[in-house]
Amino acid sequence: MTSPDPAAEAAQTSAAAQAPSGSQTPRIVSSAADIHSVLAEFGSQGTKTTAVIILALGGIFMDAYDFSSLAFGITAIKEQFGLSGFMTGLVNASIMVGAVFGALFGGYLVDRFGRYKLFMADMVFFVIAAIGCAVAPNEWVLIAFRFVMGIGVGLDLPVAMAFLAEFSKLKGKGNRSQRVNAWSPAWYFATGVGYLIVLIIFLTLPYEQHAILWRIVVGFGAVPALIVLLVRRRYLAESPEWLANQGDLKGAVEVMRSHHNLNVELAPAKERETANQDVTETAAGGRWSGFAELFSPRYRVRTIVALCVSVFSTFGYNAVAYGTPLIITTLFHQTPLITIVSSLIINLGFGTIGGLVGMSIVNRFGTRRITLVGFIIQAASLGLLAIVGIPSGALVLVSVAMLSAFVFAQAGGPGANLMNYATLSYPTRLRGIGIGFNQSVLRAFSIVSLIMFPILAASLGTGVFWIVACAPAAGAIAVGIVVWDPTAKDVEHED
After folding, report:
1. Most buried among 224, 236, 288, 355, by the most CB within 10 A?
2. Can you give the pLDDT at residue 303?
3. How far apart are the first and last CA of the chain?
4. What is the DSSP letter of 211?
5. Cα R_g (the chain), whole angstroms
6. Residues in the chain with pLDDT values less than 50
7. What are the boundaries of the region Disordered (predicted)?
8. Any idea what DSSP says for residue 84?
């Protein structure tokens, strides 16, 4: 056997590197930068990657269902356990406290140990917590299991967002901005499904047993969590971008071939050594110093605007979307059935559709512009709700329409794009920490809003909407001032 001609091999490698994905000639990769480039250009082209995207959205579905499953039942819980306004808020907020810790440490862990391992672990929290909440004998046990549930949510969001971004291409149909935005319709669809389950049980359960309705709804969350957990074991794979950053180029290429359906091959060892000689250890990510790097000159403005979008949009969401049953029942003085049906229509209809609209237009208008318009619509809707006050007659429809407009704008605007800001503003090595830090701050402010909103609503009535309107107004100002837009930005090659 004759030895290969080095010059001929080099020429073949150079030609192969330019070959399009899916051609007979493989694309040769020799470094993490090459892998980032191939994935940015071609993304995923196989059914297995589609399964990964669906599984990531399945995690989002569980996050949303567990967050919202207690929303309708909070009135019954307050009566059963004899809770004060503060304790009612604490029951609501306990899941947020868990999410603060889960997101903070989950963001670090997903960059340190990989997306796959953490993704496989977090559903266990949902199963245990859902069952524990359903059988809770008192408010303190309920609070404890809601805290555990929050840890699961906090762990799941950074890894789910990382998968959505890293299993997608940079531009074109099915790009990273669109797929990250997909978390929003998935969230509202899950919330709507929760209210649909509430409606079905409400209509079929004897009236004298309505006190346990919230237990059935919360406990049901364990069922889809188990299904997602089992299916994940079959289809999930590690992110090739994360593997490449860890120096496992062979593993990254294997996933790109098996899941992304990309025709790639690893360059000879000598070429890989030359290509990676300037790569530093920090490229691997997963270091506590990553939190400080979020505020380095390169990322400081991005981190601040991402926090502004998250905090201000979430304050309004917790007060209006999450608190819809409380608003319709207590402030609008409507019956339980009207409350359930209205909440179902607002979330499943306007929320899901708003999220899908936001996905479809983000490429054309960009993350920043859509977020700004969404904040403006929300502020106007809340102002009108405050002006109407306690509605009667036809004004009930006007008030419900304003709630719907708020949720529509949230789902397609700041509520969807807060994840674009937090996920796509950072490269792979910082993505988990960036999302985790953003989510931990977001949840910390959520705790305040969940505790304070019932108290303010009880004392101010519909006047509370003037206070809530300040949040989207502040968000609009922040986004208007900061011009950073993460849409289609190749943050990997900034390093």
Report:
1. 355
2. 96
3. 43
4. G
5. 24
6. 1-22, 281
7. 1-25
8. -
Position 258 scores a pLDDT of: 82
Between CA 99 and CA 96 the distance in angstroms is 5
CB distance 228 to 127 below 8 Å: no
| 355-396-207 Cα angle (round to 5) | 85
- For CA atoms 280, 286, 292, 294, give the dihedral sign: positive
Label residues 293-313 b or e (16+ Cβ within 10 Å = b): bbeeeebeebbebbbbbbbbb
Please compute, for residue 93, the number of CA atoms within 13 A of its CA located in the half-sphere on the CB side. 21
Tokens of 149: 């549930």
Q: Identify whether the C-beta of residue 322 lies closer than 8 Å to the C-beta of residue 64.
A: no
Q: How far is CA 60 from the centre of its chain?
A: 6
- Cα 272 to chain centroid, rounded: 36
Contacts of residue 354, defined as CB under 8 A and 6 or more positions apart, other chains included, come to 184, 185, 188, 407, 408, 409, 410, 411, 412, 413
The two three-digit tokens of residue 338, written as one number: 């009207």
> Model confidence over 420-462: pLDDT tens digits?
999 999 998 899 999 999 999 988 887 777 777 777 777 887 7
Q: How many CB atoms lie within 10 A of CB 34?
A: 22
Q: What are phi and psi of 167, to 5 degrees?
A: -110, 30
Can you give the pLDDT at residue 1? 41
Q: Which residue's entry shows tokens 């790109």? A: 256
* pLDDT of the residue at 371: 97
Nearest residue to 450 via CA among 86, 79, 72, 184: 86
Residue type, 194: G
The pTM of this model reads 0.79
Q: What is the pLDDT of residue 305?
A: 96
